[in-house]
Write a structure and sequence with these properties.
Stationary-phase Survival Protein Sure Homolog, Chain: A, 23% helix, globular, 9-stranded mixed β-sheet, homodimer, 11 strands, two-stranded antiparallel ribbon
Amino acid sequence: MKNTPRMKILLTNDDGIHAPGLYALSLEIKKIGDVSIVAPAVERSAVGHAITVVDPLRVTEVRRDGEIYGLAVSGTPADCVKIAIKTLLPKRPDLVISGINQGPNTGINVIYSGTVSAATEATMLGIPAFAISLDSFKSAEFAYAAEFAAKLALKMREAPLPAGVLLNVNVPAIPKEKIRGVQVTRQGIARFTEEFHERVDPRGRTYWWLGGELEDGKAEEGTDSAALHEGMVSVTPIHYDMTAYEDMDLVARMRLAK
Amino acid sequence: MKNTPRMKILLTNDDGIHAPGLYALSLEIKKIGDVSIVAPAVERSAVGHAITVVDPLRVTEVRRDGEIYGLAVSGTPADCVKIAIKTLLPKRPDLVISGINQGPNTGINVIYSGTVSAATEATMLGIPAFAISLDSFKSAEFAYAAEFAAKLALKMREAPLPAGVLLNVNVPAIPKEKIRGVQVTRQGIARFTEEFHERVDPRGRTYWWLGGELEDGKAEEGTDSAALHEGMVSVTPIHYDMTAYEDMDLVARMRLAK
């Protein structure tokens, strides 16, 4: 890798610019590239691939230990990537990394993920990208996941993915020495068992709050969730073409008429 | 179809409960089924597959011409479908229709679409669904699209789609007699050419506003956009499994190590 210029790497997330997962990621990625951080000003979990069109975006410089750490954007993760690349960064980044998310982004829930959507947005803008999440809503042990992210960043420069494809990485929240390897997986069908909690506010009006638990007990082999259960890092190639190609004939046979 | 009970059909959208496209849809669908409407209280364009987890949801009854028209939810289109099915509706619907959206949902932009995500959410909850959009940001001529939606609803009862698959329908904004037919399409690569407009607010602070135009001039044959250009109704089967199966081997060959 001598003589190769350092990669310009944009970091973002959906837990917000002050999240410890993003900070841990930045420490490792700085060792291998020039890092810019553009992330949501506040937590933006479960925003899916939202972009802000109805409201304006504001951008604020954030400092950490007396130095400029990054830019906080009053929008979603996808907004951050879009405005960073189109407007805020002086040069186009070579890679976008989104994370490290607190909690897994696996199964059906990937579609709700702001973390993944930031990486998808980068891919849509023609920039290689991956999302990385730690399989725990509690553990603050991001060090191994950050180390893996740095290795993956270098690998992706060596062996670029086809246009339109990104990686969704999930890392078990166990000590590095217990991690059993890396598995290329497919998106599983883990989902939250959700229920709405009905409550009454101080003024006597009803409101509902979505609660739920990740239900991935019966993860099928080969899926993202199953890999995590087995102590493996899960790497899923994903793309934003949602066409169900295998069902096009079936729909044609419906003989829909004008 | 004699002796078949009337379908229970839930309608939603992302333009908000007061949108004319939703009203036009409701008039046609009432002819073939029992309609419930649960839709966002305000416009929720470009929210992607967002769900509201950080804030509570509120629900308000909306009347039209002195009668109950539907329920307005203080959330996203996906929230509406989730809370309707889990909490608000007395019975599980047989079908969910999202639309009629003002403006196309084609190409790359499908991933940003609140309209499509509402239908996707229904599919994730095991209920057949489709999204329907009118290819114009101005025309209020929703009548033909509504008529097509009603026909499609009946067809989908006759010939159910596989689990996990939904339809994304786009209708040209031309008179019915000029429509040339129905084409089963794939998601194209039409996208918005976007730019951020930098402005200064009355207090002297900078803000950015996302603007853009749909750029689908070079639509490839077989895609959603191309069908619309040719005066055809576009019907794209889509699914929420984002795995890029054809690239799994390639990622395996990257030999990612722990």
